[in-house]
């Protein structure tokens, strides 16, 4: 695979959002996934989020962050033409490597409820649902 994986920078934002919008199962949030929201994420978590390019075209992305105790993966997406070649795993491995440097206990991710393909991918990769917790959220 001749794909280059590198740290995500804010200049990647428009291409990344276009990839998210073209991918079923990605829940784009108006505040946190806005350009300002992603700028904050990248500034608070330098070097953790990645993008992948194939011949100059965005091939994938993965957001990674942490709160000092737990890590989080979000919006791990690979362009349909490049799926099944290990690109998602390579991006995830790079994100996890960066998160390990922060000595975190766990890494969490969310899968949209009806995203069966996403759930199958994550479970095949060794991630398991946590039956002892239910995520509760509140808009600010």
From TrEMBL:
InterPro entries: Acyl_CoA_acyltransferase (IPR016181), Bact_Acetyltransf (IPR050832), GNAT_dom (IPR000182). SUPFAM superfamilies: Acyl-CoA N-acyltransferases (Nat). The keyword Acyltransferase applies. Keywords: Acyltransferase, Transferase. PROSITE patterns: GNAT (PS51186). GO terms for molecular function: acyltransferase activity, transferring groups other than amino-acyl groups. CDD domains: NAT_SF. Residues 3-140 form the N-acetyltransferase domain. This is N-acetyltransferase domain-containing protein. The lineage of its organism: Bacteria, Pseudomonadati, Pseudomonadota, Betaproteobacteria, Burkholderiales.
